[in-house]
């Protein structure tokens, strides 16, 4: 049966659900509206284009016309949906032709999130930037090329902040990171964060932790911190977080969850069963504890797209929750995390054990072996894995993948010594670090 399906927003959520829908539904009319110029691009690749690792801007972009032709989708870029009339199933949108309306049978919201940009005294938009969209990236790239800044302050030590420092240093800038927390990257525990901090100091990055940005002066070149310190910077990157774009949903009386994101059920439906939502704008539940979480990662967005497309085509597969598996690069280190950290477990009052193992990424006698550190957080009784963190120069991604899989399958640390993970001197040791930390975790449970 032919239906009119309208998708608001692109990138990992909206563009993917459009493609997934068309693969299994050749009849429905599918329209996609996006207020930007591009319906799909690599957000995660932007720091590396700024740093010159990714040489061509086009490598980050997906051609909207090709997507429209390949999947027979009516793509409308530079078009902002401004209102939803749920009763009459109509949308109001604005583009170069003015304000218009269109109907829908099913509506999918993928509005994403926006970078937080505090309204600070003295902020100068010619010197102060955020990074979340292609125009943001272009502004930073052009400012570097035009103004040749020698110093940069990065406010926020999360994903964007840490990745940007490396790529700004590639331009020869003297960089300072400022963060209100006592450690970088709150996603991981403080002992693991200390490894990153030592590495950044070795790369001549200045760290100002447990401090925040209060205001600017001197045409935006002087940063006034809450501690009273003053920092001089030719440019500033604000990487203090993102906020889900919920304005359209709120105006339409769609339920907003306690995290501030759009509330959905296990099939990604809002409180209006004909309206779905996914991606960076939605609240989902933690895969283990069931607590509400707002996790803005591409992997979950892709899975949610498959859930929405399947449900619209009659499937009853549910989204089982978000695990929050993430990995990022900081100079020579790879940092991976899955599940919950100590701060969250303590907040929830969960009793757990922890174990850390530092070893070499592969056989020590084979050239190129590097230190790798693995940390597990697990149930004090049965050994169910609650969280894992991995840091090192080599082999981090594959250890993280194993631990994330173990956690998703709701297996315990008792299975880790039994895993056959493949051994040859260039890749591992006869007992992989995963096996060894499994033995260490088991010994904790026996005490």
From TrEMBL:
Cofactor: FAD
Domain FAD/NAD(P)-binding: 4-300
Gene3D superfamilies: FAD/NAD(P)-binding domain
Keyword Flavoprotein applies: yes
EC number in record: 1.8.1.14
Residue ranges occupied by any Pyridine nucleotide-disulphide oxidoreductase dimerisation domain in the UniProt entry: 327-428
GO MF entries: CoA-disulfide reductase (NADPH) activity
Keywords per UniProt: FAD, Flavoprotein, Oxidoreductase, Redox-active center
Enzyme class: oxidoreductase
Coiled coil location: none
UniProt family annotation: Belongs to the class-III pyridine nucleotide-disulfide oxidoreductase family.
Name of this chain's protein: CoA-disulfide reductase
Species the sequence originates in: Lentibacillus salinarum
Species classification: Bacteria, Bacillati, Bacillota, Bacilli, Bacillales
